[in-house]
Amino acid sequence: MSRPEPAELLALTRRLKEYAADATGLAIAPGLSCGAPSGSAGRAAGARVAELRAQGLPPGLLSAAQLSGLALLGAVAVRQGRWGAAAAGLYWLQPYLALGGPGSPLRPADLGRATAARPVRSLGTALRTAVAAAGQDRGEGRDTAAAAAAYRADLAGGAGRFLEPRRPDCPWCGSGRLAVRVRVPDLLQGKPGRFTLERCDGCGHVFQNPRLTPEGLEFYYRDFYEGRGGEGAGRVFGRLGSAYRGRAEMLLPYADPASWLDVGTGHGHFCNAARAVWPRTRFDGLDMGDGVLEAERRGWVETGFRGQFPEFAEKLAGQYEVVSMYHYLEHTRDPLAELDAAATVLAPGGFLAVELPDPQSRMAGLLGPAWLPWFQPQHQHLMPAANLREALADRGFTVLAEEHGPAHQGNDFFGAVALTAARLGPDPDRPWGPPATTRARIRAGAVRAAAVPCFAAAAVLDALRTAAARHTDGGNAYRMLARKDTR
Question: 57 lies in a domain?
Fold first, then answer.
């Protein structure tokens, strides 16, 4: 049996790590090896691109970041005298300082040569990787011809046909006092269309108006969680281990459930992680996409139900001690019907756990259309916590706990940069867009390169914002745990 290529081994490692939700990020396996890349520099660069993608990393963006960093380091070394030279020297020696300790199990055989040649090798690798990534992107673009034809057919009648007529009243309280909260295009994928979120002045409910038709939902969800965007979505969900644990631990003071249904489970990442908190609980999952069936095949859920939750309500009536809806209700066409279904599926005394974006977050006003939780066109409804409490009480639930700070998702600034970059430099190979041109590729590359320092700054700001949100018990989301009354 031949040894695997490096990219194959990296892809397998990343896939296996998904099954260990809270495992270490680094493990050393003595004697494990793979085939080394061989051939020309071009083939080596192609192998490097494959390895980065196998790790779930964007080769083009990383190359741009590396080139930007080298340019900044060179400028500092020239302009800042001794301090600049010291910074450049530390960069030069960093591999040896990190890996060159006596007896280090991570010390590569060619560490000395690699350290000595680091600046030249880094520059050459970044340039070759950027060229190879661009070439592979063009090749993949040619492979999307069938998908592009299907999208052109869907858009032949215009994107307006995916919207229902605008409604004059609030779907939550019936008030006619509505005001536009935000108008945005599809910043997530760059698909055609423009969407409006309106806010009810009576109850504060925010909803998409006009809302998407079922056909429109299928069109805008396509290639996001599965298909073309499935790997990226899976990568994001696979990195939310601490959030999953926090959700699972919220129930610790109240119950020891034997059965749990996670609605909107996706590929079952929460259920896989929650077993560390509830090892004796049976986790089932429900979702509209095929990912729930994959979750069942992986063993991350015992049973996967594919379809609309209200359609399963009578079949599953009274069967679960816990039903969870984590960032699910905002995606639904009728959240009140979803709460009715949860009340039906839960046994008396059972628990409903809900997590939602908070439309009253301060960041919603600060970032405007670039606030990620608006998430247009997927999010149909964003309800204040007071509205959810009232709706739960109307359905025979008693709210036991409510969390705001711990539910905060630290992505406000990073998400704003990502949405803005996608708007300014959209993916030239997206099958729903116009044919890719050299100018579009150059623009996308330039925007990605310029966004690198913005992403770095955003990560720092998000870390500070997360600390502040948890300290003040406020953020961009909230969790609620309620018990179904036994009477």
Answer: yes
